[in-house]
């Protein structure tokens, strides 16, 4: 990695850890007596604090959304294609805040943290958190940073759910909502995929009821399998076919039931093994449950139009044609409800072969539309 970063990069960045001593009541009925959130910021907050943009991450995301932590980093942050000078979320214009959510395993308070009431690692005792809880903690974060209203709240997938929840829970505090490759709630099929992934973790002998960290072990096999299941759903059939087809690792079949013979098998195993070295199993359970629980319209008898009647933000929704995990039809449900509620909404369905992961990729038409909308936001 060169020491000179690309001109459109935010360059070297450093995480910050913010401590919150005020207890946080969670939707599950339990209370976090105190907690910390790890964040990164890019750009400068203007004098009126009117140019702030919040980045909400998806299931396995975190605070490191753009730039580099050192000159030795091989890859930048997970959404570097969208954040930086001249990029859709232009750091010459916006002050960008990215965080690791509660329950995460990248520095914010979660299952790998020490419970101040017991002096032991939380593990499976960390309370269940929801999208609503995340947004409430993010509102406190905004208060700490002196931000009364976000110019925009932006997120893809589970991040898009958070962006949508922001407009419902704090309508006066969001001017624009960008909800990308997301849904108003999970389908039964999506919940089923999440349950298979959770069962892979729960059935690992080294999960130990969620207290594996105290025993010095990691349920690597279960976590790896969970990642493999999830990764399959993030890619389209076309993307997997183009990348791997039926290519073999060797010149011929081995007729061995336990060997890795196809390139796609090797790829999935690598993804699973790599993920198991950097992610926490309890966090994975928490994040997938938060996905399952999200259903803001349930408070209004399932009527999404009524749910969105009080929002004040303008909306931009984007979806991708081959995304079958969060299909365009799910984004259109939100669009239709917003139109019925007489709200301002823009919608773009992008023809892209990459599946759900397309929202993370530098697809020219996608980034052009993304930039076009962000450029319209006055600060």
TrEMBL record:
Superkingdom of origin organism: Bacteria
Active site: 157, 323, 356
Enzyme nomenclature, EC number: 2.3.1.46
GO biological process assignments: homoserine metabolic process; methionine biosynthetic process
UniProt entry keywords in alphabetical sequence: Acyltransferase, Amino-acid biosynthesis, Cytoplasm, Methionine biosynthesis, Transferase
Enzyme class, first EC level, given as a word: transferase
GO MF, one annotated term: homoserine O-acetyltransferase activity
Record-listed substrate binding positions: 227, 357
A family per Pfam: Abhydrolase_1
Known catalytic reactions: L-homoserine + succinyl-CoA = O-succinyl-L-homoserine + CoA
One term under GO cellular component: cytoplasm
Primary localisation category: cytoplasm
Positions of the record's site feature: Important for acyl-CoA specificity: 325
UniProt similarity note: Belongs to the AB hydrolase superfamily. MetX family.
Subunit structure: Homodimer.
Protein name: Homoserine O-succinyltransferase
């Amino acid at each position: 990695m060169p020491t000179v970063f690309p001109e459109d990069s935010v360059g070297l960045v450093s995480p910050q850890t913010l401590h919150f001593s005020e207890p946080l009541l969670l939707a599950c009925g339990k209370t976090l007596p105190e907690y910390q959130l790890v964040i990164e910021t890019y750009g400068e907050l203007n004098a009126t604090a009117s140019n702030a943009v919040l980045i909400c991450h998806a299931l396995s995301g975190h605070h490191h959304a753009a730039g580099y932590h050192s000159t030795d980093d091989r890859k930048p942050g997970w959404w570097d294609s969208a954040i930086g000078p001249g990029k859709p979320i232009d750091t010459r214009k916006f002050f960008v805040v990215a965080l690791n959510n509660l329950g995460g395993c990248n520095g914010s308070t979660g299952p790998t943290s020490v419970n101040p009431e017991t002096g032991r690692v939380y593990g499976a005792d960390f309370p269940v958190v929801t999208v609503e809880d995340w947004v409430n903690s993010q509102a406190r974060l905004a208060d700490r940073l002196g931000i009364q209203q976000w110019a925009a709240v932006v997120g893809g997938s589970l991040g898009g759910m958070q962006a949508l929840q922001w407009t419902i829970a704090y309508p006066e505090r969001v001017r624009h909502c960008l909800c990308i490759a997301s849904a108003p709630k999970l389908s039964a099929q999506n919940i089923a995929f999440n349950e298979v992934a959770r069962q892979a973790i729960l059935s690992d002998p080294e999960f130990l009821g969620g207290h594996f960290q105290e025993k010095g072990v990691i349920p690597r096999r279960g976590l790896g399998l969970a990642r493999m299941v999830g990764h399959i759903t993030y890619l389209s059939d076309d993307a997997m076919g183009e990348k791997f087809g039926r290519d073999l690792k060797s010149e011929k079949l081995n007729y061995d039931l336990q060997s890795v013979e196809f390139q796609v098998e090797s790829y999935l195993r690598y993804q699973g093994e790599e993920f198991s070295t950097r992610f926490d199993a309890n966090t994975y359970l928490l994040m997938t449950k938060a996905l399952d629980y999200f259903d803001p319209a349930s408070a209004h008898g399932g009527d999404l139009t009524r749910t969105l009647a009080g929002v004040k933000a303008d909306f931009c929704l984007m979806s991708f044609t081959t995304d079958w995990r969060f299909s365009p039809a799910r984004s259109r449900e939100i669009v239709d409800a917003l139109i019925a509620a007489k709200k301002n909404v823009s919608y773009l369905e992008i023809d892209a072969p990459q599946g759900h992961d397309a929202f993370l990729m530098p697809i020219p038409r996608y980034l052009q539309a993304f930039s076009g909308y962000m450029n319209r936001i006055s600060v």
